[in-house]
Amino acid sequence: MLREIGIMVKPTLGKVLLFIMFAFLWIAGVIQTYAFIDDVPGLEKPPLYDYLRPFSFWFSWLVFSAPFYLLSTLLCTPVDFCSAILSSFPDMGAVKFPLAGVIYSYAAASFTAYTWRTHITTPRKKRQTLLTALIPTIILNGTMFFILLIEPNRILFVLSSYLTMYLVMLFYVISIYGAYKIIKNSILRRAAYRGLLSFR
User: pTM of the full predicted structure?
Assistant: First the structure.
């Protein structure tokens, strides 16, 4: 088990590239949350906020970060130690630098790349995975077509929303399949071990 975890988190070119995309999405999403509080006096605008305004990262980041925030809520609700940890993170204007999110991004990239390389090995499985991720991407971004019809100049906004959401949906599809394979293999190993013991 420890050996598999070591292999999973060991840096490779694919993992690093995927991590960069996930981490960028997380940081960009956090920066774009300023749009909801920019009317509050005294709050400093985060760096790169104006450069990111033509793009849509916030909703994709929200979907990507959902497991992280769900888990952190469950862990921090009984005893609030998270506030002290978060307060130590460096400031980015009105928001905090998402150090925990960056760590989550590497874990997500590692598990996604590991599952893709280990369990999604045939061309047929790869095609199925890539196509499966398209369905929720289109569903979640259904209103983007109307934005493009009303404001054709917002093509970057619409494209960035589709591309980042597709990346997030790939993460979910691959990760769910990877978790299923790990659980299935674990059950089979235990069954085989018990069968061997009973045979003896």
Answer: 0.84
